[in-house]
Design a protein that fits this description.
Keywords: Glycosyltransferase, Hydrolase, Protease, Repeat, TPR repeat, Transferase. By secondary structure, this protein is α/β, with parallel strands linked by helices. The protein folds into 3 domains: 218 residues, Serine Threonine Protein Phosphatase 5, Tetratricopeptide repeat; 143 residues, 3-Layer(aba) Sandwich (Rossmann fold); 176 residues, 3-Layer(aba) Sandwich (Rossmann fold), CATH 3.40.50. 56% of the residues lie in helices and 8% in strands. It has 33 helices and 13 strands. The protein has a 7-stranded parallel β-sheet, with helices on one face. The chain has a 6-stranded parallel β-sheet with strand order 10-9-8-11-12-13, with helices on both faces. Helix 27 links the parallel strand 9 and strand 10. Helix 3 runs parallel beside helix 5, helix 6 packs antiparallel against helix 7 and helix 10 runs antiparallel to helix 11. It starts with a helix and ends with a helix.
Length: 752
């Protein structure tokens, strides 16, 4: 018959061999007959620790120390179990009890340091680690723990030396390799981080945390396809890890796979209902899908859970504006501006386009965003001699080569470039939608490369293989931008154009292409780029845009048969209370008139109708037009009499579309690029008289024209003539101006 001593020896052998179920069975049978056997209780706790079940271990080990309170190693392992369970307060008490029984034990000192670290008592943790190091200076686990603490203390550079010392003692410490990789990542050295993550995975291909960490860096560097593959493997290994699902959602979203990203974020939230970052990320994807009400709920939850999470206040503000919910708007704008002034990542730069903030805040926001986007991508200098091509090689980079406002403007430019002077290259890292605009662009450029599955580094290598003279970023700080391409230097000259009305806030962008109206000389201090100005307007347009032949009757598009029709088809997020109040005063002064806007979510329309009623205007005088294909929209726009622009963020492509359709518009000159575009366009089409400088002037002009049918008719006739003669819709002239600008930029670099 097996004695208790034999049973303990047998269980110990199974434990040492890793046969945990067998060891567990022996110990459970023993404890059934001897429930207070201290050694059996201790071994049962150790089995559960090795099995990754710290709560079960705590149950056995607490019973053990009750039976044998003077056994130091039992207290030590109970402390380890508490550490593993995240209960660092009880862990600390156990480690202190162990040291009282066995002073100076280096393993216990290390474990005490771990508990202190997680309790935020960093100086005490370091003192405990240093005491342990005095006894076991080359203990690899201790060196790793010191490194982890130093990373927590914001000293990743110092941490690297400790990781290196530990890895010298144990080169196959995959956790040490992973954690040193994270320290390199925190230092901004993505290359060394990737090396360590890959080294850890080479030793242990099943190391899910290394898969996830590697994927995060690769995704930031534009290598999203590999990132998705790694994260899908990590999720398979650890399906209950909420962070892995969240990271998978981020990578999927970057590849344009929004529905799959939503599912990944949803799974992360199911696993961890308090996961603020997952709520924020899902909110961003819902926003991109124009599901703004749902996005708002997610942002509110994220802010409730983690008020300091980067970008969230700005995201929340932007969603609120999409929904035309102006409750507390001034306070939110001021809060975001104050946070940015304090150096906090409170908003993405694009959010500030639509709100009144000082110009230095716009620049600082762009700088903070660029620094964050490029935190794992050092900015490279051009390291090659200038090319000597007979024709300038110009590369255009975008995720929006499809049915998109930027693409509508770029297509005529690509078609009209003078092939004796320039050779054009397109690099598309957005979806291939196969629509008519996409096909037009594929034909229009000399070379069209679909690079969406390639990393930023691979795209730069391709651009350098093509020997670009100038690289043009058509994205700026907008969704799916890939600033990492330009940080790595795709060309000796890099400029941003058309996609983003403001500064990029980074030295990797040499120029912003603009004009005298949108960026006057007085605004240059608010740009990190040099200003490359075109002679008339910065926006390219042409008369060749398709407009449906049949103009529908007013009643067919929901308009009254009589009365003046004001229109504004700008994005709802551009509508602010000040300009809306001006519109309502205009409607009040022009009886029978209506304001025609584009339809969006029902809640936005409800909010605008409520705001109209609060200003004394019948809500039925707001008419909402459903979205239709652009050619049909341009035809129906002709039913409008006068376009009323938004203020802080004008209509850009929307304004030129409305002018193309033959409808004159009024704008008020804003104080920054986003609010000065319509003025540039109106001046370029020969209608400078429609540019006002204050909202009272804007209102007065709108009312005067609305009440003078003859003046409005003459204005419309003037626009009809000017469309064919003035520069705005002369794409060929624009192309020549832009090519001359490119030549000047190239010559300036060549001569330096």
């Amino acid at each position: 018959m097996e004695t208790l001593s034999d049973a303990i020896k047998n269980a110990m052998q199974h434990l040492q061999q890793g046969s945990l179920p067998e060891a567990r069975g022996i110990l459970h049978r023993l404890l059934a007959t001897a429930p207070t056997h201290a050694e059996a209780l201790h071994l049962a706790g150790v089995v559960e620790l090795q099995a990754g079940a710290p709560q079960a271990a705590i149950g056995f080990l607490r019973r053990c120390v009750e039976v044998a309170p003077g056994v130091a190693f039992a207290w030590s392992n109970l402390g380890v179990a508490y550490n593993a369970s995240g209960d660092f307060t009880n862990a600390l008490a156990c480690h202190e009890k162990t040291l009282a029984l066995e002073p100076g034990n280096p393993v216990v000192l290390r474990n005490l340091g771990i508990a202190l670290r997680y309790l935020g008592r960093h100086d005490e943790a370091m003192a405990s680690f240093e005491r342990a190091a005095g006894k076991t200076p080359d203990d690899p686990e201790l060196r790793r723990e010191i490194g982890d603490l130093l990373v927590d203390m914001g000293r990743p550079g110092d941490a690297v030396a400790h990781y290196a010392r530990g890895l010298a003692a144990n080169p196959r410490d995959t956790t040490g390799l992973h954690n040193r990789g994270y320290a390199f990542y925190r230092m901004g050295n993505a290359e060394l981080a990737i090396q360590d993550y890959r080294a850890a995975l080479k030793i242990d291909p099943r190391f899910a945390r290394a898969m996830s960490s590697l994927a995060v860096v690769l995704n930031e560097r534009g290598e999203s396809a590999e990132a998705v593959d790694l994260l899908e493997r990590a999720v398979q290994r650890e399906p209950g890890n909420a962070r892995f699902h969240n990271n998978l959602g981020i990578a999927l979203d970057k590849l344009g796979r929004a529905s799959e990203a939503l599912a990944a974020y949803g799974r992360a939230i199911e696993l961890d209902a308090g996961y603020a970052e997952a709520y924020a990320n899902r909110g961003a994807t819902l926003n991109e899908m124009k599901r703004h009400a749902q996005a708002l709920a997610d942002y509110d939850r994220a802010i409730e859970l983690a008020p300091e999470l980067p970008y969230n206040p700005g995201h929340r503000l932007h969603i609120q504006m999409h929904l035309c919910d102006w409750t507390g708007l001034e306070g939110r704008i001021a809060g975001v501006a104050d946070a940015i002034a304090a150096g906090k990542l409170a908003a993405e730069a694009f959010v500030l386009c639509a709100v009144p903030v000082p110009p230095d805040i716009r620049r600082k926001c762009a700088e903070l965003c660029a620094r964050d986007v490029l935190r794992s991508t050092p900015i490279a200098a051009w390291d090659r001699p200038a090319y000597g091509h007979q024709r300038l090689r110009i590369g255009y980079f975008s995720a929006d080569f499809r049915n998109h406002p930027v693409a509508y403007l770029v297509a005529p430019l690509a078609e009209r470039h003078d092939r004796s002077k320039v050779e054009t290259f397109a690099y598309s890292f957005g979806p291939d939608t196969g629509d008519a605009t996409r096909k037009r662009l594929e034909r229009a450029f000399d070379h069209f490369d679909d690079v969406r599955a390639r990393s930023d580094a691979d795209i730069v290598a391709l651009a350098r293989q093509h020997e670009l003279d100038i690289a043009i970023d058509l994205m700026g700080h907008t969704t799916h931008a890939r600033l990492g391409i330009f940080a790595r230097r795709a060309a000796p000259i890099q400029a941003q154009y058309l996609g983003f009305p403001g500064t990029m806030g980074t030295s990797c962008m040499d120029y912003v292409i603009a004009d005298e109206t949108v960026v006057p000389p007085t605004d240059e201090p608010y740009y990190t780029e040099r200003i490359a100005r075109l002679p008339v307007t910065y926006q390219v347009n042409d008369l060749g845009r398709e407009i449906a032949a049949e103009v529908p009757a007013r009643t067919a598009v929901g308009l009254p048969e009589r009365g003046l029709v004001f229109c504004c088809f700008n994005n709802k997020a551009k509508i602010t209370p000040d300009v809306f109040s001006a519109w309502m005063r205009i409607l009040a002064a022009v009886p029978g008139s209506v304001l025609w806007m584009v339809e969006s979510e029902a809640i936005a329309a409800e909010n605008l109708r409520r705001e109209a009623k609060s200003r004394g205007i019948d809500p039925e005088r707001l008419v909402f037009a459903p979205r239709v294909p652009l050619a049909q929209h341009l035809a129906r726009v002709r039913n409008a009499d006068l376009f009323l622009d938004t203020y802080h963020y004008n209509g850009h492509a929307t304004t030129s579309d409305t002018l193309l359709a033959g409808v004159p518009g009024i704008t008020c000159l804003g104080d920054a690029f986003p609010g000065r575009v319509a003025a540039s366009l109106l001046r370029a089409v020969g209608l400078p008289e429609l540019v006002t400088e204050t909202l009272p002037e804007y209102e007065a002009l709108a009312v005067r024209l609305a009440q003078d049918a003859g003046a409005l008719r003459q204005l419309r006739e003037k626009l009809e003539r000017n469309r064919a003669t003035e520069p705005l819709f002369d794409a060929t002239r624009f192309a020549r101006d832009l090519e001359a600008l490119y030549a000047r930029l190239h010559a300036a670099r060549r001569d330096t």
